[in-house]
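Study this one:
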Amino acid sequence: MGELKYQSFPPIPQVEKSEPDNEVYERASLIVQTTNRCSKRCPGCYLSENPATENQELDQSRYEECIGGLKEGDTVALRGGEITLLQDWFERFATPALEKGLKIIIETNGYFIETKDYQDVLEKMNNDKISVRISFDLEHLKGLQEEKVASEFEKMARFAEDAENAGINFGFYALGMDGAQIQKFVQGTPLEQFTSKFHSLAFHPQISNLKINGQYLKSDGKLSDRIEV
């Protein structure tokens, strides 16, 4: 695994885009910041626009109030921070949406893969109304020792194999990396066999400037037509 050093990759071009270019913004009627707490500190994360924000968790009653106005078949994107840090996160946020007949996108950095309830989470994710988006790219590896980098690839490959076997709808999303960079990123790693599961996302220096089609529910309970930090 000696080649897994992010420093060996060319610089990621950080080209600002005027419009969002991924399906979360296009498909979701409601994007929900369940918390602004995260298990990682990635330089390219939208939370870095406002690093002074306090740890917040979205009030469940406020969340249920907001999804109450959606209709069956609408899509809700559940994100953080890192949603799977929250206790009973699935029951608090995914279950109420599923009970309303909503489709769900779960955005995560894969923190749940190493938790004691991993198998239970897998079973819950095995639902045709759920899509799982795992963020995994160079930014998520910065600052890690080489041994930890190797274990991160192994962890993601474990989930990919388990998810495929279970029939879970999932994908890996690489911020700021094009197809060629993704191929080099996974080459010679346990994730190489899952290259087709990777999707490229453009880097937006100020994501809060992007207007979205639905609404954004911030962890403080406020609604906006933009992703606010």
In short: The longest strand covers residues 169-175. The chain has six helices and eight strands.
